[in-house]
Amino acid sequence: MPERAVRASHDNDGVPRWIRRYGTAAWLFIGIVIVVAMVVFATSRIQVVFISVFLAAVVTSVLYPIVSLLARHMPRALAMIVTLLATFGAVAGILTYVITSVAGQWADLADQFGNGIDTILDFVENGPLPIHFTQAEILDWIDDLVAQGQEYVTANAGDLVGQVLSNAGTVALVFTILALSLFVTVFFLLRGEDMWRWFLNQLPARSREKVDVAAGAGWYTFSGYARGTMIVALADAVLAFILLSVLRVPLSAPLSVLVFIGAFIPLIGAPLAMIIAAVVALAANGILTAVIVTIGIAAIGQIEGHLLQPLVMGRQVSLHPVVVALGVTAGTFLAGLLGAVVAIPLLAVIWAVYSTLHEPDPPITGRLPRTAGRE
């Protein structure tokens, strides 16, 4: 090799440039992994604070446009109070309606559920299946299960008491999270822009514009996801309520609220709500109604995925389904149900910030370079 080529391919210390380049990239990747791991670890240690701030951000993204609209005609503090009171009133009204409907239909549902169990037992005993079980045998199995449960409770009474006390502590923790998130929401709605301006002023002047643009893109994506999910969940609940009411399925209102909650849990929330609604329909009105409920709620899911989400969210949250599945799975393993809920908005925000700060090279058009010269 000519001496000039040797000099061109090595730096002053004799290390080839390709080793230096890929080595630098490897160290950067390791640094990113360490930073992400530290963030996850720190978040797990202050999970209460993270959940409170996340809930406050969700509520703020939904209510901020309403507060800003009312603030044009009244002081912002009054607009914030009116919006929060109206929200609390709506939530309280929905809960009251759900509780009264459950109380009014629970006795009838229990009777229908018992009739459904008798029908299933009769089918198992006298139906066309090749294997038959008598009702006495099934009752004996149930008695055995009850006896085993009693033995387990007796043997593990101390642990169960500890779990009950732990659950009591969990209830107090939930109230703490709600109170803290409400406190943070009030300041986000009232002084959010001033708080963000103060934060920018703490940064070097040369970095403020870039940070403001990146954070704006992230907030635009997060608020679009939160508002869009809220609208989609509400539409799913209304459609489910209409379907269940037409079919005269008991507890239509509570089941619709369950569908509403399930819309916030990607991938698994809607199927779980569908299964529970189908079981109630089976117990109340028979297998035909259960099949119709299953097909109807599945159709609502298709309407959500192919019409409502593209129409409501647009391109604010443009993640590939593979990324959604992997993100939800990873979030579930890291933080359980909480991880499954927050994985998608966090991934969407990260991608929005990256897309804003990243300056991509010209895209590849036509045939890939590695296959262009193989014919």
From TrEMBL:
Keywords: Cell membrane, Membrane, Transmembrane, Transmembrane helix, Transport. It is found in: Cell membrane. It is a multi-pass membrane protein. InterPro entries: AI-2E-like (IPR002549). The chain crosses the membrane at residues 21-42, 48-70, 77-99, 168-190, 231-251, 257-280, 287-303, 323-354. Belongs to the autoinducer-2 exporter (AI-2E) (TC 2.A.86) family. This is AI-2E family transporter.
